[in-house]
Amino acid sequence: MKLSLMSGVEDKTSSFKKNGGCVVFFKTNREIKIGEQSADSVYDCSVDPSVLQDLKEIASLIESGAYTSEVRRIYRAMRLTMKLRSKLKASILSAFLKYALGPGSKVHAQLSSYIPQDRHDNQVDVEMSETESQSKRLVPELEIYCYLLVLIFLIDQKKYNEAKACSSESIVRLKIMNSRTSDVLASKFYFYHSLSYELAGDLAEIRGNLLVLYRSATVRHNKLSQETLVNLLLRNYLHYNLYDQAENFRSKAHQAEALSNQQFCRYLFYQGKIKTIQLEYTDAKDSFLQAAKKGPITAVGFQILCNKWAVIVHLLLGEIPERTVFTQKRMEKALRPYFELTNAIRVGDLELFRTVAEKFSSTFSQDRTSNLIIRLRHNVIRIGLRNISASYSRISLADIAKKINLDSENPVDDAENIIAKAIRDGAIDATLDHANGWLVSKATVDVYSTNEPQIAFDSRVAFCLNMHNEVVRALRFPQNLRNKENVAR
């Protein structure tokens, strides 16, 4: 019985190899590893061959999508690629390029030069039939996909100079292509093209090229690439603090319906940053809240960034964010500096505010919110005055300067000027008695007898209705569904 089982295994085995102390049996599209295990690396000979088989299936999916002009197949191919991203190895990538492009093509030679070679590369073979080798895949979409795959691999391996060179070569090829099926691949490639230059520290070099690509995408009505390129240009400007140029471009760029939720969330975030710097805090708050609500739940880093800027904008508007904002899952540690900053502003203590700002100065600098933290000093004083006005019916200016910890040469005169401005702006409801040096507060008015609750409720209803309308517009249906219905009628 044992002999018959062993003979069955030997019959199913198509070939046998032994290289570098690693024994490998190859079966039909699968691989069984026995013997020694080497360390996991780019050249690991123990790579699961199912990854190569999955890449072949993705290539077939792209081909069928290109032939039938079905964009949803290209979308599916990109989603499957992102799942395989962490499993890409040099040996598998070399084998796939040989399968997809052919060993004698010019594109194969270019892309192979970026993939590091090693003695383990020959341990993954690609078996192709004669018909496959004769009719090589010359679909332009598949060629761009191979460029994209190599570019992602180089970025993951932190070889940014090689990634820059690879992306620059393929951009020339992308400018020639003009088809709806290539739009998805082009938008993805533009993103990684900009990312490679950003990681290399040369983001300003491609600004002119991105503007040219955006103009071409507009002329060709490539809406998906337009969305991506608008966000890349805004990120390029904001990376160098060119807020005026970013706003000029944003205001003149053509705004079409959002096709990608991820790109729309990025656009809202960049718009919120621009509005914040330009003192338009109300519009900025709406942009950050929408970006955080519409953003993917799995994108924790993006959610944290949106919440950080939203907290700053709330504080600049004189509002105190709810405590639940800082206790969200997987965000407590990242939002801790902003939580302590909010506590200092809520109390209205300048000394505590300065302590928190100095304690987390490196965090604020890394988040690029240091200049906004400086603006909050005036809000700390205002909130302190509001608390004092609500607690005392009459208090001297000297006591006010002492309570809010004014560190100036003449704190009483400075306190008088600050109080006068707060009264003029409507921050506090009180009067100044200059003769006696007092701040006399007026009687507290019941807020429910005013229109403020109605205004707050109306703003929340408008926000929910706006989000509902955007969700309805974002619904997608199969492209051929309407045609089938018309044929049935």
Quick summary:
The protein has 489 residues and is mostly helical. The chain has 23 helices and 6 strands. α4 (90-101) runs antiparallel to α5 and α14 (281-294) packs antiparallel against α15 (300-316).
Q: What does this protein structure show overall?
A:
By secondary structure, the chain is mainly alpha-helical. It has helices spanning 2-12, 50-68, 71-84, 90-101, 106-112, 130-134, 140-156, 160-176, 180-200, 207-219, 223-239, 243-252, 261-277, 281-294, 300-316, 336-347, 350-359, 361-366, 370-391, 397-403, 411-425, 452-473, 481-488; strands spanning 15-19, 22-26, 31-35, 394-396, 430-433, 438-441. A three-stranded antiparallel β-sheet has the order 1-2-3, with no helix packed on it. It has a three-stranded antiparallel β-sheet with strand order 4-6-5. A hairpin with a 4-residue loop joins strand 2 and strand 3 (31-35). Helix 11 (223-239) packs antiparallel against helix 12 (243-252). The chain starts with a helix and ends with a helix. Residues 1-47 and 119-137 have low confidence and may be disordered.
Helix content: 55-70%
Succession of helices and strands: HEEEHHHHHHHHHHHHHHHHHHEHHEEHH
Strand tally is 6
Shape: elongated
How many strands, what sense, and barrel or not for the largest sheet?
3 strands, antiparallel
**Main structural class:** mainly alpha
Q: What average pLDDT do the residues reach?
A: 76
Biggest sheet: strand arrangement: 1-2-3
- In DSSP terms, counting alpha (H) and pi (I) runs of 4 or more, how many helices? 23
**Percentage beta strand:** 5-15%
Radius of gyration: 31 Å
